[in-house]
Amino acid sequence: MHHFHYIKNELFCEEVPVATIAQELGTPLYLYSHATLKQHFKVFDGAFSGMKHLTCFSMKSNSNMAILRLFAMLGGGVDIVSGGELYRALKAGVEPTRIVYSGVGKEVAALEYALKTGILMFNVESAQEILKLNEVAERIGKKARLAIRVNPDVDPKTHPYISTGLKENKFGIDINDALEQYSVAASLNGLDVVGVSCHIGSQLTEVGPFVDALRKLKKLIEDLRDIGIRIDYLNLGGGLGITYEMEAPPDPEEYARAIQTELGASDLTLIFEPGRVIVGNAGILITKVLYTKPTKEKMFFVVDAAMNDLMRPSLYNSYHGIQPVKNRGREKVKADIVGPICESGDFLAKGRDMEMLEPDDLVAVMSAGAYGFSMSSTYNSRPKICEVMVKGDRYFTIRDRENFEDLIRGESIPDFLMEDQNKVQEG
Ligand code: LLP
Q1: Which one, 221, 245, 306, 401, has the greatest CB density within 10 A?
Q2: Tens-level pLDDT at each residue, the chain (427 residues)
Q3: Which cofactor does the UniProt annotation name (predicted)?
């Protein structure tokens, strides 16, 4: 469900024609629907209303402050993976007691920052990190609440780059070593063991792997309680998939029912870290056709957005729907939608049956709200594009388009190179 729809062959976001925004702000741009964001958060969070829980939006999927602020206002927390994400979340007004921190490579400075902030808990991912967290906590006189992120060795049946809960992945502590590591953590003065956590992968389209992981975690929690380690929180991570093309993932209610059935009556507080399922279909990328280029092989539509703006197609060969902002009823062609970057891997879509486009036509790249802007870069010295939120009949720029000065901010040329340049000029 989302609020991007056609009225008389013209694409609208809520009540605003997409073409009006593009005309006003230029292209490319990311466009989010406030109503969709809000609804997706509420549907996910509401699905667990019968259970003690906390929804910690996984902000790596979209870290714009306006979006974080919206979820914070709806009672959400966030899942962070870096000091930078913590900074953003706090600036957006997220309650520290609703922040959980995962990641295999947490730096000392970031651990210290999060400890001083008083976040809810750290999801610790290695034996060394347990010791490091304890050391930092003792040094600054704090207690670090922690969960161990366990790797339950469950196949999430998703793209290998985004599967995380298999033995061969770098994430978490092997569930078979967890008891031992929990005992170590429980014996350390700087630590307060409060939870068990896992995240098995992203874009899952079945509930089975989640249930398999939960079954293993339940057993672990029983074993921990048997040795006197009290567990209050169970974090099941994120990973629920969305429809990009033909996928039919379980909806949040179905996912919640499966979790509740497997968990049974429980005094645990559940934590979820959804990202994609909340923002994925709440955002689109608007781009303009620069050139159309028929070759003997196929038709190319060269657009002004590129792999630096949306890298998912290049990186994972992932599918995003391509829709003209105005349906004009032209003849159908098979086309590749490509960007201006100097790489053959720079494409947004391949071999699409769609209506013929002309230069200056606008195109919407669908389902781009998750891992779109947040993974963008300035490759080929292309300034980062703007982000816009629509609410009803109004729209708001929530991130300015960057300019050329932004591109070189922080760079400097050492004196010796300047001298050389003088010499060149003198010579
Ligand atoms: N929790 C942890 C610890 C994670 O590592 C992730 C995602 C999530 C939660 C949120 O997962 P989600 O609900 O969004 O599936 N760039 C890739 C996705 C990478 C996912 C990384 N971890 C993509 O564009 O598909």
Answers
A1: 306
A2: 899 999 999 999 999 999 999 999 999 999 999 999 999 999 999 999 999 999 999 999 999 999 999 999 999 999 999 999 999 999 999 999 999 999 999 999 999 999 999 999 999 999 999 999 999 999 999 999 999 999 998 888 777 766 676 777 788 899 999 999 999 999 999 999 999 999 999 999 999 999 999 999 999 999 999 999 999 999 999 999 999 999 999 999 999 999 999 999 999 999 999 999 999 999 999 999 999 999 988 999 999 999 999 999 999 999 999 999 999 999 999 999 999 999 999 999 999 999 999 999 999 999 999 999 999 999 999 999 999 999 999 999 999 999 999 999 999 999 999 976 656 665 5
A3: pyridoxal 5'-phosphate
Instruction: At 423, give phi and psi (nearest 5°).
Output: -60, -45
Give the distance, in angstroms, between the CA of residue 108 and the centroid of all CA atoms in the same chain.
Answer: 24
Which atom belonging to ligand 1 lies closest to the Cα atom of 203? 15
Looking at the fold, whether 195 and 79 belong to one and the same domain comes out as yes
Q: What pTM does this model have?
A: 0.96
Residues 284 and 267 in one domain: no
Q: Atom 24 in ligand 1: which residue has the minimum CA distance?
A: 371
The residue from 13, 56, 198, 342 that is catalytic is 342
CA of 159 from ligand 1 middle (Å) equals 12
Does the annotation count 342 as an active-site position? yes
> What whole-number distance in Å separates Cα of residue 365 and Cα of residue 321?
6
Do residues 236 and 366 both lie within one domain? Answer: no
- CB of 102 closer than 6 A to ligand 1? yes
Would residue 416 count as lying in a domain?
Answer: no
Are residues 262 and 392 both part of a single domain? no
Domain that holds residue 123: 34-277
Give CA–CA dist 158/128, Å, rounded: 29
* Count of structural domains, the chain: 2
Q: What distance in angstroms lies between residue 10's CA and the mean position of ligand 1's atoms? A: 33
| Residue at 419 is within a domain | no
Question: Is residue 228 included in any domain, yes or no?
Answer: yes
Range list of β-strands (E), 59-190: 77-80, 99-101, 121-124, 144-151, 173-174
